[in-house]
Please model this.
Amino acid sequence: MSDSCFKMSKQRVTADSKKIINNDRTVDCNQLVPIKYKWAWNYYLDGCANSWMPTEVSMQRDIEQWKDPKGFTAEERHIIKRTFGFFATAETLVGNNLVLAVYKIIDNPECRQYLLRQAFEEAIHVHTFQYIVQSLSLNEGEMFNMYREVEAIYNKDQYAMSCTDGIMDTTVDSKTKEGLQNFIRNLVGFYVITEGIFFYSGFVTMLSFGRQNRLPGTCEQIQYILRDESIHMNFGIDLINTIIAENPSVWEDSYKEMIISFIKRAVELEHKYAEECLPNGILGLNTKNLKEYIEYIADRRFERLQLPKQYGAENPFPWMSEVIDLKKEKNFFETRVTEYQTGGALEW
Ligand code: MN
Ligand code: FE
Model:
C-alpha cells in the first residue's frame, strides 16, 4: 500500500519533487500547487465544464414511445433493457473501484483532484439509470439484478472486479514492481476495458435509436455520459502511460503480453454479450457489426497504450466518431454547457 499520510516537513514542495505514485512521505499529498501534471488538472477543468443532471432532461416522449405497444419490437426492447441493466450496476462498480482502490494508491494531488470529480460523475451516471428505469416504469428488480442474473453481464462485471481483489489486499505494495504491475492491471481493467470497451456497445446501441428519433431523452443522457466517459478513459490512459514512463521496469515484454491478452479476453466477453443482446439483429445493428465495432474500439485502445493493434477492423459505424468528437458538433450540447459555464457565477 502506498502511504496515505504525509509527514509534515518544513521543506517547500517543488513540481520536480512530485511523482505520479509512491510519493516520498515528505511530499505533501494535500498540496495541489505547484502543479506538475497539467494534463490531470486540465481533465478536471474539462469535467467541470460538462456539468449536467439527468433530471433536467425530459423523458416525456420516451415514456409515450415506450408505452406504445407498437413502439418497439420484442428484440428492440430486449437489447434496450440489457443496456440499462448493464449500466445500472456497472457505473456503481466503477465508482467503488475508484474510491476504494485507485484513490488510495494514486497520491498525487492533481490526479486526486480529477478522481474526486470523476467520482461525482459516476454518481450522476448511476442516478441517470435510476431515473430512466423509473421514468419508463421498468421493473427495478429485474434491471438492478441483471448483473447477477444474465450470464453475459455477470461475466463482464466479474472480469472487471477480479482486478480489484489484488489491490484491495493490504499486503500488496505499490512500491514493488509486482505491486505496481497489479495496480496498472486494475487501471486497465476499469479505464480501458470497462469504461473504454464494455461501455461502447451500450453507447452505440442507444445512439442508433437516437438517430431514428427514438427514446430522445434517454439518448440525450447517454450522449452526456459518453462525453464524460471519454474523459474518464483518456485520463486513465494518460495515468497509465505516466506511471509506466516513471517506472519503466514494469513495462517488460512478458507484462505487455499479459495486458494484450487481458484486453483480448475482454473483447471475447463483449462478443458473447453482443450475441446475447442481439440474437437476430435490429435495424442497422447486428451481432456482426457490433463485434466489428468492439474490435475497432479495442484497437484504438491498444494504440493509445502503445501496444500493437490486434484486429485491424474497420469502423462499421462512422457516425459514432462524429458523436464522440463532440467539439465538432457545434449545436450538440450548446444550451446546457453554456448555462452551466455562466450559471456557476453568483451575482452579488
Ligand atoms: Mn460513468
Ligand atoms: Fe466513468
